[in-house]
Known about the structure:
The structure is a single chain. By secondary structure, this protein is of the alpha/beta class. Helix content is 33%, strand content 22%. The protein has three domains: 187 residues, D-Amino Acid Oxidase, subunit A, domain 2 (D-Amino Acid Oxidase, Chain A, domain 2, 2-Layer Sandwich); 187 residues, FAD/NAD(P)-binding domain; 32 residues. Strand 1, helix 2 and strand 2 form a beta-alpha-beta unit. The N terminus is likely disordered.
Amino acid sequence: MSGPARPTAPQDARVTRALADAVGRPFWTDRTGVDLGPPGPPLRGTHTTDLLVVGAGFTGLWAAHLALDDDPGRDVLVVDASGPGDGASGRNGGFCDASVTHGAANGAARWPGEYPTLHRLGLEHLDALVADLDRHRIDARWEPVGELTAATEDWQLPELAELASLLSDHGDDVELLDAPGTRAVVDSPTFVGGLHRRTGVGTLDPGRLVAGLRRSLAARGARLADHTPVVSVRRAGAGVHVEGPGLSVSARQVLLATNAYRGLLGPVRRAVVPVYDHVLVTEPLDRHRLDALGWAGRQGFADAANQFHYARLTPDDRLLWGGYDAIYRFGGPTGPGVERNEATERLLYAQLLDTFPQLDGVRITHTWGGPIATTTRFCLTAGTRWDRRVGWCVGYTGLGVGASRFGAATALDLLAGRRTERTELGLVRTAPVPWPPEPLRWAGITLTRRAIARADRARGRRGPWLRLLDALGLGFDS
């Protein structure tokens, strides 16, 4: 997360020209040839179902599929307050990582004894996700291309070396690179070293994944209702009663997959806060620009700062560039009113050219913001209430493209009362420290954002506030 002391957004003419024609819509859901299908008709009236899934993002869609795998005759209803891909599932960068703990370093630090199991389960679930794409004939443009993490300051190199050792100890194919080796993978004058991770991560097209999951669910008999908000969930007899505008649903069980959006139960609302991440996508790059980048392996990319950027090539050879300036607003609002930020967009473009000056003059076609649901331990949390009538999994902190399937499977295990390897994890059995109420929430996050910005300026040295958070087990992990 960035802090208020961020650099001033540049006002020069080349930034203005580059952004002049950009549309404020996610690239993944704003293309001809990618058919998300018509929105499911809004649901009104009185209904019953075996399993009601609230939220039609990746967690909800995977949960519906996995529930039908368990019992093909189960009546499954998926409702969403918006339309196909409108939430984080259509607004992310398309990085699909095996990690279920928001990275190896975060997982190993918080659950050292069970991290080997967490690492293995993450890899198994990534394999299962890819197998499901084939089984359901979903062309999500999956590319198992790996990832390059580039150091842009010398102080980042020891941390990359520690991460390389951790990943290698758990079987990942990784290589530490010097500056020339890093620039041979992706060329930037800012790179002083890097870590090339060849396994356990790839890229896909999240718009096509949303579309494919929806189509295959409909073919399996699930019901999808868009523009169907839910405002209350309460225990009722042997099941759950759910209400929305003009809507009443009685369900045997409910799975809440609302992630960054307002939780319908107190434990969910207190578990996550929404921070907004912003993304730019360029026009298609011609052969000259692609050759200048040297990005032949098409790896996912991130830099190693706390306020980090990420980038990738899209299937049609655009450059997607985002990160750095994650924003929390008082009260945690979500929706169209907070999805654009001109200062952040200008700053991101200037930083893009700092990293890749060979792209000077490239125009931006799409820019948008999307909500990241983060917990105080920076990875997912799952749970149940009311004798397993309601379950949830939320809080992926930006790595939900892959981890959402794991989260959906875990929530279904909990609802079924199954004792599985997943449900026995400390990650699942313990809840994160809840976020405090406002105004303490905003004050704490703002103080942390400022401290992180100072740490990056101070060559990674963590000040008193970050050291206190580390000691309390609440230390920021980017």
